[in-house]
């Protein structure tokens, strides 16, 4: 072995050999050091400065990378998150670290008041969390973590303990969040979708009266350039939506029981479908029936096409549930369904054409996929989710391209992601043209997904060593 990184400072660490034939060892070692530096003992923070707690979908992506360094630590990452699940099944988008000062991040635990405001919904009493959710990547992450060391996973009962919690999480989304009545999950806050500041939310957000600027203090501006972050007006609307949801006891009812923001999002639902396939594999591993999750995945795929596909746009669009119409904005969210194995072939072909066309420019004007339409009026290459390229969406699309036979494009995107991750210091996000770093550096999921791409590498036949195909998912 030419070079190793030793990860024994925390439980579950082990020596990891790096193969110089895969990629320069320095990139792998640097990525591992980011994850080691962000590890708290039970979970991994996205960023020591900007995001000092545990975030839901961040931890799922981080576990996917951690599995290559320490399968035990990757399992612990997910177990820590699942331990904060509410009785109604929701997995909160933030699990707060009580040792972090309240003013280090806003909204802080005293804003969410989960143990009191969320009591009727079954919020845990021993840990403070937020009351909203994030995209359901968790079953996919759990399955991939299991595959990294099945013997350890079985010995610890990892999947046996995770499965009922993951199943409850999916039930919550499918039964409590079908606000449009058409079979898809709705998000009730932009933070739930994960692409917080996307122009796709501008139209429904315009109905929301912002909280007064004097009623909150933004901690994010202490660590990031204002030009890279949401505006004060947008942030005021985020705060208003969250406060209103909290003041209703985090109750999910019909469309009349939610606030002004209710959106069916393509990526959120595509990730639920992907995780349903993974849940089917977990069920099979445990000797249970996999027919339920598989059938739901296939049904949800058909519903996604029916409700959110827009032939004129050549991609999926978000649906404003209150207005009853598609939102005419092209965001990267509408490309993520390329992950789905049952996506009709003609739609997959059209999505590839769109991602490589003038609106996203992949392989032409850009090496990475921008988060928003390059030709859109709201495009900004540096402002949070309004144009910059993000590494998690790039990772998802790399898998989707490879799944649908676009090996050359997948290989090129993989190389672009790895180059940008290393050159940017594992930035939170980057300019899609220049890869100039924006937001935080030493970002958890950037390092983790770079590690995954380095280890989960293309083979001679154009596939990846552990790539998920339709059969692997379900």
Automatic annotation (TrEMBL):
Source species, domain of life: Bacteria
Cross-referenced Gene3D superfamilies: 1.50.10.10
Keywords linked to the UniProt accession: Glycosidase, Hydrolase
Domain Mannosylglycerate hydrolase MGH1-like glycoside hydrolase: 51-446
Classification via Pfam families: MGH1-like_GH
InterPro entries reported for this sequence: 6-hairpin_glycosidase_sf, 6hp_glycosidase-like_sf, Glycoside_hydrolase_63, MGH1-like_GH
Family: Belongs to the glycosyl hydrolase 63 family.
Name of the molecule in the record: Mannosylglycerate hydrolase MGH1-like glycoside hydrolase domain-containing protein
Organism: Streptomyces djakartensis
């Amino acid at each position: 072995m030419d070079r190793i990184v030793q990860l024994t400072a925390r439980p579950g660490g082990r020596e990891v050999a790096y193969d110089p034939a895969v990629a320069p060892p320095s990139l792998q070692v640097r990525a591992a050091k980011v994850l080691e530096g962000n590890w708290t003992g039970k979970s991994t923070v996205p960023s020591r400065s900007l995001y000092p707690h545990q975030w839901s979908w961040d931890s799922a992506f981080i576990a996917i990378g951690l599995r290559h360094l320490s399968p035990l630590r990757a399992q612990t990452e997910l177990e820590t998150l699942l331990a904060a699940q509410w009785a109604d099944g929701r997995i909160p988008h933030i699990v707060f670290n009580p040792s972090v000062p309240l003013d280090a991040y806003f909204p802080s635990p005293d804003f969410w008041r989960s143990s009191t405001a969320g009591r009727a919904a079954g919020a845990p009493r021993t840990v403070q969390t937020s009351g909203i959710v994030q995209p359901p990547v968790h079953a996919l992450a759990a399955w991939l973590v299991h595959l990294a060391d099945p013997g350890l996973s079985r010995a610890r009962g990892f999947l046996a303990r995770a499965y009922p919690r993951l199943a409850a999480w999916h039930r919550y989304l499918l039964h409590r969040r079908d606000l449009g009545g058409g079979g898809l999950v709705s998000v009730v806050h932009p933070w739930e979708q994960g692409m917080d500041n996307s122009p796709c939310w501008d139209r429904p957000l315009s109905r929301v009266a912002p909280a007064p600027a004097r009623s909150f203090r933004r901690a994010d501006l202490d660590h990031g350039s204002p030009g890279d972050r949401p505006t004060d007006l947008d942030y005021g609307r985020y705060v208003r939506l969250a406060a209103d949801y909290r003041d209703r006891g985090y109750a999910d009812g019909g469309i009349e029981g939610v606030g002004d923001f209710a959106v069916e999002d393509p990526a959120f639902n595509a990730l639920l479908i992907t995780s349903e396939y993974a849940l089917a594999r977990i069920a099979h591993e445990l000797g249970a029936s996999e027919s339920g999750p598989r059938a739901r995945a296939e049904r949800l795929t058909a519903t996604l096409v029916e409700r959110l596909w827009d032939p004129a746009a050549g991609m999926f669009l978000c649906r404003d549930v209150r207005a009853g119409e598609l939102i005419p904005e092209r965001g990267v969210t509408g490309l993520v369904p390329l992950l789905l194995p049952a996506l009709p072939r003609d739609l997959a072909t059209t999505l590839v054409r769109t991602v490589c066309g003038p609106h996203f420019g992949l392989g032409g004007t850009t090496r990475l996929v921008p988060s928003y339409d390059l030709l859109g009026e709201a495009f900004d290459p540096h402002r949070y989710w309004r144009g910059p390229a993000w590494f998690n969406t790039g990772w998802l699309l790399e898998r989707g391209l490879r799944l649908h036979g676009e090996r050359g494009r997948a290989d090129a995107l993989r190389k672009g992601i790895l180059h940008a991750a290393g050159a940017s210091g594992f930035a939170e996000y980057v300019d899609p043209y220049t890869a100039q770093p924006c937001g935080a550096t030493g970002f958890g999921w950037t390092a983790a997904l770079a590690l995954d791409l380095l280890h989960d590498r293309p083979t001679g036949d154009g596939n990846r060593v552990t790539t998920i195909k339709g059969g692997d998912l379900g």
